Amino acid sequence: MISSEDVVKMKKKKWLTAEEWMKIISEKTYSESLEIELNELQKLKEEGTLTIRVPKESNGKIPFDTITWSKTVRSLKIRHEPRYCMMKLFDSDVQTVRCLRYESEDISKQFLQVYFWVFTYDDYIYSHYVILTNECELPDSSNSNKRRLNTHQIDVLRNDVMPNETIVNAKRVAHERGINVTTKQLLNLNRKDRTADIDPRGPRGDIVKLIESIRAVQTDEEL
Predict the structure, then answer these.
(1) Is residue 100 classed as helix, strand or coil in its secondary structure?
(2) 3-class DSSP state for residue 197?
(3) Alpha-carbon dihedral sign for residues 43, 44, 49, 51
Protein backbone atom coordinates (compact mmCIF):
# COMPACT_ATOMS: atom_id res chain seq x y z
CA MET A 1 0.00 0.00 0.00
CA ILE A 2 1.07 3.61 -0.60
CA SER A 3 1.70 5.44 2.68
CA SER A 4 0.44 8.95 3.46
CA GLU A 5 4.04 10.13 3.24
CA ASP A 6 4.31 8.72 -0.26
CA VAL A 7 1.04 10.40 -1.27
CA VAL A 8 2.50 13.76 -0.23
CA LYS A 9 5.62 13.02 -2.27
CA MET A 10 3.52 12.10 -5.30
CA LYS A 11 1.64 15.40 -5.07
CA LYS A 12 4.93 17.30 -5.03
CA LYS A 13 6.27 15.54 -8.10
CA LYS A 14 5.69 17.21 -11.45
CA TRP A 15 6.83 17.05 -15.04
CA LEU A 16 9.66 19.39 -15.95
CA THR A 17 8.74 22.69 -17.59
CA ALA A 18 10.17 23.83 -20.93
CA GLU A 19 12.39 26.31 -19.05
CA GLU A 20 13.77 23.53 -16.84
CA TRP A 21 14.48 21.32 -19.85
CA MET A 22 16.28 24.11 -21.70
CA LYS A 23 18.38 24.81 -18.61
CA ILE A 24 19.33 21.14 -18.32
CA ILE A 25 20.33 20.99 -21.99
CA SER A 26 22.20 24.31 -21.96
CA GLU A 27 24.12 23.54 -18.76
CA LYS A 28 24.56 19.86 -19.69
CA THR A 29 23.36 18.66 -16.29
CA TYR A 30 22.59 15.16 -17.50
CA SER A 31 24.32 11.79 -17.71
CA GLU A 32 25.40 10.36 -21.06
CA SER A 33 25.28 6.75 -22.17
CA LEU A 34 24.91 4.66 -25.31
CA GLU A 35 21.95 2.81 -23.78
CA ILE A 36 19.87 2.92 -20.61
CA GLU A 37 20.79 -0.20 -18.69
CA LEU A 38 20.50 -1.48 -15.12
CA ASN A 39 23.66 0.40 -14.08
CA GLU A 40 22.01 3.70 -14.99
CA LEU A 41 18.77 2.70 -13.26
CA GLN A 42 20.75 1.88 -10.12
CA LYS A 43 21.78 5.55 -10.00
CA LEU A 44 18.10 6.43 -10.25
CA LYS A 45 17.30 4.25 -7.25
CA GLU A 46 20.14 5.75 -5.21
CA GLU A 47 19.47 9.40 -6.04
CA GLY A 48 15.72 9.41 -6.68
CA THR A 49 16.01 11.16 -10.06
CA LEU A 50 17.94 10.60 -13.26
CA THR A 51 18.30 12.72 -16.38
CA ILE A 52 20.15 10.94 -19.17
CA ARG A 53 20.95 11.44 -22.85
CA VAL A 54 21.39 8.62 -25.37
CA PRO A 55 22.02 8.65 -29.16
CA LYS A 56 18.89 8.71 -31.30
CA GLU A 57 20.38 6.41 -33.96
CA SER A 58 20.83 3.38 -31.68
CA ASN A 59 17.76 3.82 -29.46
CA GLY A 60 14.05 3.64 -30.15
CA LYS A 61 11.52 6.43 -29.85
CA ILE A 62 11.14 5.47 -26.20
CA PRO A 63 14.57 4.11 -25.17
CA PHE A 64 14.49 0.56 -23.86
CA ASP A 65 15.29 0.30 -20.14
CA THR A 66 13.69 -3.07 -19.10
CA ILE A 67 10.85 -1.23 -17.25
CA THR A 68 7.24 -1.79 -18.36
CA TRP A 69 5.74 1.56 -19.37
CA SER A 70 2.67 0.26 -21.19
CA LYS A 71 0.28 -2.58 -20.53
CA THR A 72 -2.86 -3.77 -22.30
CA VAL A 73 -5.06 -6.58 -20.98
CA ARG A 74 -8.24 -6.60 -23.04
CA SER A 75 -10.01 -9.23 -20.93
CA LEU A 76 -9.68 -6.97 -17.87
CA LYS A 77 -10.21 -3.74 -19.82
CA ILE A 78 -6.79 -2.46 -18.79
CA ARG A 79 -5.06 -0.02 -21.09
CA HIS A 80 -2.03 1.74 -19.67
CA GLU A 81 -0.15 3.80 -22.27
CA PRO A 82 2.27 6.77 -22.52
CA ARG A 83 0.87 10.24 -23.19
CA TYR A 84 2.20 12.40 -26.02
CA CYS A 85 2.34 16.19 -25.80
CA MET A 86 4.10 19.08 -27.54
CA MET A 87 6.57 21.48 -25.95
CA LYS A 88 8.50 24.43 -27.35
CA LEU A 89 12.25 24.22 -26.73
CA PHE A 90 14.68 26.77 -28.16
CA ASP A 91 11.97 28.04 -30.56
CA SER A 92 11.32 24.50 -31.84
CA ASP A 93 8.20 22.39 -31.31
CA VAL A 94 9.28 19.12 -29.70
CA GLN A 95 7.10 16.08 -29.10
CA THR A 96 7.50 14.68 -25.60
CA VAL A 97 6.30 11.40 -24.13
CA ARG A 98 5.11 11.09 -20.54
CA CYS A 99 5.12 7.62 -19.04
CA LEU A 100 4.19 6.02 -15.74
CA ARG A 101 5.50 2.65 -14.71
CA TYR A 102 2.92 -0.11 -14.56
CA GLU A 103 3.18 -2.71 -11.80
CA SER A 104 1.16 -5.90 -12.12
CA GLU A 105 1.66 -7.49 -8.69
CA ASP A 106 -2.01 -6.70 -8.09
CA ILE A 107 -3.55 -6.47 -11.55
CA SER A 108 -6.74 -4.85 -10.26
CA LYS A 109 -4.82 -1.90 -8.81
CA GLN A 110 -2.23 -0.01 -10.77
CA PHE A 111 0.72 0.76 -8.52
CA LEU A 112 2.62 3.59 -10.16
CA GLN A 113 6.14 4.15 -8.95
CA VAL A 114 8.17 6.06 -11.48
CA TYR A 115 7.67 9.05 -13.75
CA PHE A 116 9.54 8.86 -17.05
CA TRP A 117 9.64 11.74 -19.51
CA VAL A 118 11.40 11.41 -22.85
CA PHE A 119 11.86 13.52 -25.96
CA THR A 120 14.13 13.76 -28.99
CA TYR A 121 16.18 16.88 -29.64
CA ASP A 122 18.78 17.09 -32.41
CA ASP A 123 20.47 13.68 -32.60
CA TYR A 124 19.78 12.64 -29.01
CA ILE A 125 16.96 11.37 -26.84
CA TYR A 126 16.67 12.94 -23.40
CA SER A 127 15.01 11.01 -20.58
CA HIS A 128 14.09 12.20 -17.09
CA TYR A 129 13.13 9.71 -14.36
CA VAL A 130 11.63 10.43 -10.94
CA ILE A 131 10.95 7.81 -8.24
CA LEU A 132 7.70 8.42 -6.40
CA THR A 133 7.89 5.93 -3.54
CA ASN A 134 10.43 4.30 -1.26
CA GLU A 135 9.30 0.86 -2.41
CA CYS A 136 10.59 1.09 -5.98
CA GLU A 137 12.32 -2.10 -7.14
CA LEU A 138 14.45 -2.36 -10.25
CA PRO A 139 13.81 -5.14 -12.79
CA ASP A 140 15.76 -8.32 -12.16
CA SER A 141 18.48 -8.71 -14.80
CA SER A 142 17.69 -12.41 -15.21
CA ASN A 143 13.97 -11.79 -15.66
CA SER A 144 13.78 -8.49 -17.51
CA ASN A 145 12.30 -7.68 -20.89
CA LYS A 146 14.47 -8.35 -23.94
CA ARG A 147 16.10 -5.29 -25.49
CA ARG A 148 14.72 -4.52 -28.94
CA LEU A 149 17.06 -4.56 -31.95
CA ASN A 150 17.91 -1.11 -33.26
CA THR A 151 17.82 -0.11 -36.93
CA HIS A 152 21.57 -0.59 -37.46
CA GLN A 153 21.53 -4.07 -35.91
CA ILE A 154 18.56 -5.11 -38.05
CA ASP A 155 20.36 -3.93 -41.21
CA VAL A 156 23.50 -5.90 -40.29
CA LEU A 157 21.49 -9.05 -39.56
CA ARG A 158 19.43 -8.83 -42.74
CA ASN A 159 22.22 -7.92 -45.14
CA ASP A 160 25.39 -9.46 -43.67
CA VAL A 161 24.61 -12.18 -41.14
CA MET A 162 21.43 -14.01 -42.16
CA PRO A 163 21.66 -14.53 -45.97
CA ASN A 164 22.18 -18.23 -46.79
CA GLU A 165 22.90 -19.10 -43.14
CA THR A 166 20.95 -21.35 -40.81
CA ILE A 167 19.30 -19.64 -37.85
CA VAL A 168 21.77 -21.39 -35.52
CA ASN A 169 24.80 -20.16 -37.47
CA ALA A 170 23.30 -16.69 -37.88
CA LYS A 171 22.82 -16.43 -34.12
CA ARG A 172 26.41 -17.54 -33.49
CA VAL A 173 27.83 -15.04 -36.01
CA ALA A 174 25.64 -12.26 -34.61
CA HIS A 175 26.91 -12.89 -31.09
CA GLU A 176 30.50 -12.89 -32.37
CA ARG A 177 29.80 -9.44 -33.84
CA GLY A 178 28.40 -8.15 -30.57
CA ILE A 179 24.68 -8.35 -31.45
CA ASN A 180 22.83 -10.12 -28.64
CA VAL A 181 19.96 -11.49 -30.69
CA THR A 182 17.61 -14.34 -29.80
CA THR A 183 16.42 -17.19 -31.99
CA LYS A 184 12.89 -15.77 -31.87
CA GLN A 185 14.10 -12.37 -33.12
CA LEU A 186 15.97 -14.00 -36.01
CA LEU A 187 12.92 -16.07 -36.95
CA ASN A 188 10.76 -12.94 -36.92
CA LEU A 189 13.21 -11.14 -39.21
CA ASN A 190 13.43 -14.13 -41.53
CA ARG A 191 9.65 -14.38 -41.66
CA LYS A 192 9.64 -10.96 -43.31
CA ASP A 193 12.68 -11.32 -45.58
CA ARG A 194 13.24 -15.07 -46.09
CA THR A 195 17.00 -14.51 -46.27
CA ALA A 196 18.18 -17.23 -43.91
CA ASP A 197 18.40 -20.92 -44.72
CA ILE A 198 16.00 -22.51 -42.23
CA ASP A 199 15.83 -25.95 -43.85
CA PRO A 200 16.87 -28.66 -41.34
CA ARG A 201 20.18 -30.40 -42.04
CA GLY A 202 21.81 -33.70 -41.09
CA PRO A 203 20.02 -37.07 -40.67
CA ARG A 204 16.91 -35.44 -39.23
CA GLY A 205 16.85 -32.98 -42.10
CA ASP A 206 17.06 -35.80 -44.64
CA ILE A 207 14.06 -37.53 -43.02
CA VAL A 208 12.05 -34.31 -43.04
CA LYS A 209 12.85 -33.73 -46.72
CA LEU A 210 11.93 -37.37 -47.55
CA ILE A 211 8.55 -36.98 -45.83
CA GLU A 212 7.94 -33.73 -47.70
CA SER A 213 8.82 -35.42 -51.02
CA ILE A 214 6.39 -38.30 -50.31
CA ARG A 215 3.63 -35.84 -49.46
CA ALA A 216 4.31 -33.92 -52.66
CA VAL A 217 4.10 -37.12 -54.75
CA GLN A 218 0.86 -38.15 -53.03
CA THR A 219 -0.61 -34.74 -53.73
CA ASP A 220 0.35 -34.99 -57.42
CA GLU A 221 -1.26 -38.46 -57.69
CA GLU A 222 -4.48 -37.18 -56.13
CA LEU A 223 -4.59 -34.40 -58.69
Answers:
(1) strand
(2) coil
(3) positive
